[in-house]
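Example S7 (structure tokens).
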């Protein structure tokens, strides 16, 4: 069976993959600073015969490609870390370096699993067992929800037939839910400074404009659909209280189940900013930091991923893994664990008595929208897309925490990497072996999008 050859090839790369994951974990570079991480991955792919190309205006993004012709299948890798989450590989909190960054979302494992999958497929193409084009997309800055949307704006996904990815998680599951579309925008107001006691009438307060904008936004909340999320923070409120602030800034995020809802609310928010500027006789500029689409999971691809997940099975952990997982989560209340898991629609009874989930969850969540954002959404509006979770973290452990950083560097991580790589590689194998599956997924994609052409938030 050629698939077993595929799985064996991935297993044979275990040591090399662990070295990559460990090195990425040590680098722990934040969004758009992934210079060493992207270089490491590019060199590895180049050594395996991939052609490497850069992405315009994005120094830490790249594409590694092998093969030619139809179908063109892309695997989406991520490798950015989070600031302030440095942590040693142990079950008590202690940073490697105080204040440094860490892989608190386990992207070192994510990037490495994608490498394992595409290299194994490359060998199949090279030996003549498969035909098509396989690509590894090196996607930076996922944590800022901007990497893939910016890449999409550069057109690098436009000729894809299929896109796949995975994420280290608390469970084994093919994703069957959507996510929120979003805009992240900074509003900078410009006024006129003056002595706040002696001549306040000469000043025009940029801070007043920010505060009036926030008042208007809070009234707006009553007049949007319930699923819209509108949140902000003041990033610049002036320097000293005895001077009228000439400069002030507020940072907003608009989220909603669909991209057109985000655009509608954003347009209304712009009017509120205009009104605040008018009332205070100030001016403002806005800067779109990120603009993400909601995520469309292609049902045909999800079914295929699920078939391969059941063929491969979840990762099998040993006593050392269970001991580590139990110790690092011992102070997390059960109610918190249930809340964490329910955010991914895992029910309390599914986690009862479990520390690490080795079984597979087959939840029917097609009508659900996760209360968060993935930057894969843009890609899912360009090509059929499916997404996979594989256990690498203990039950109930929330992401973006020091505990995740520790788990991302622990021995259990490579088991998740190998499992994720096999499931994705097996799915690509099926698609390249039977291009009728690709055609079916693309027909469903056209129905899901209504034939709507993707338009990047970054391209006017």
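Recovered sequence:
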């Amino acid at each position: 069976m050629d698939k077993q050859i595929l799985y064996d090839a991935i297993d044979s790369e275990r040591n090399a993959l662990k070295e990559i994951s460990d090195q990425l974990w040590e680098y722990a570079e934040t969004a758009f600073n992934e210079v060493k991480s992207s270089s490491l991955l590019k060199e590895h792919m180049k050594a395996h015969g991939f052609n490497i190309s850069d992405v315009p205006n994005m120094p830490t993004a790249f594409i590694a490609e092998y093969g030619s012709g139809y179908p063109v299948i892309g695997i989406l890798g991520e490798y950015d870390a989070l600031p302030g989450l440095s942590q040693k590989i142990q079950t008590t909190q202690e940073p490697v370096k105080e204040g440094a960054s860490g892989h608190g979302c386990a992207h070192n494992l994510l990037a490495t699993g994608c490498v394992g999958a595409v290299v194994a497929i490359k060998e199949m193409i090279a030996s003549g067992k498969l035909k098509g084009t396989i690509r590894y997309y090196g996607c930076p800055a996922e944590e800022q929800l901007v990497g893939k949307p910016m890449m999409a704006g550069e057109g690098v996904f436009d000729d894809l037939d299929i896109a796949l990815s995975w994420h280290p998680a608390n469970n084994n599951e093919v994703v069957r839910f959507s996510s929120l579309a979003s805009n992240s925008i900074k509003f900078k107001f410009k006024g006129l400074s003056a002595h706040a006691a002696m001549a306040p009438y000469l000043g025009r307060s940029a801070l007043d404009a920010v505060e009036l904008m926030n008042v208007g936004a809070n009234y707006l909340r009553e007049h949007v659909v319930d699923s819209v999320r509108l949140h902000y923070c003041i990033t610049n409120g002036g320097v000293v209280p005895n001077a009228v602030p000439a400069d002030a800034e507020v940072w907003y995020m608009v989220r909603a189940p669909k991209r057109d809802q985000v655009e509608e609310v954003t347009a209304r928010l712009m009017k509120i900013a205009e009104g605040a500027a008018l009332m205070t006789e100030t001016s403002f500029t806005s800067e779109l930091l990120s603009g993400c689409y909601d995520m469309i999971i292609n049902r045909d691809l999800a079914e295929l991923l699920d078939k391969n997940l059941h063929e491969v099975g979840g990762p099998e952990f040993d006593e050392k893994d269970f001991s580590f997982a139990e110790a690092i989560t011992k102070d997390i209340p059960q109610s918190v664990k249930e809340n964490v898991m329910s955010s991914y629609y895992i029910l309390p009874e599914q986690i009862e008595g479990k520390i690490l989930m080795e079984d597979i969850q087959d939840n029917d969540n097609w009508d659900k929208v996760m209360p968060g954002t993935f930057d894969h959404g843009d890609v899912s509006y360009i090509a059929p897309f499916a997404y996979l979770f594989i256990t690498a973290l203990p039950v109930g452990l929330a992401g973006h925490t020091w505990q995740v950083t520790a788990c991302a560097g622990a021995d259990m991580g490579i088991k998740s990497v190998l499992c994720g790589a096999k499931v994705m590689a097996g799915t690509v194998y099926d698609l390249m072996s039977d291009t009728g599956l690709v055609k079916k997924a693309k027909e469903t994609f056209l129905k899901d999008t209504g034939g709507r052409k993707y338009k990047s938030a970054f391209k006017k």
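Notes on this example. The first helix runs from residue 2 to 12.
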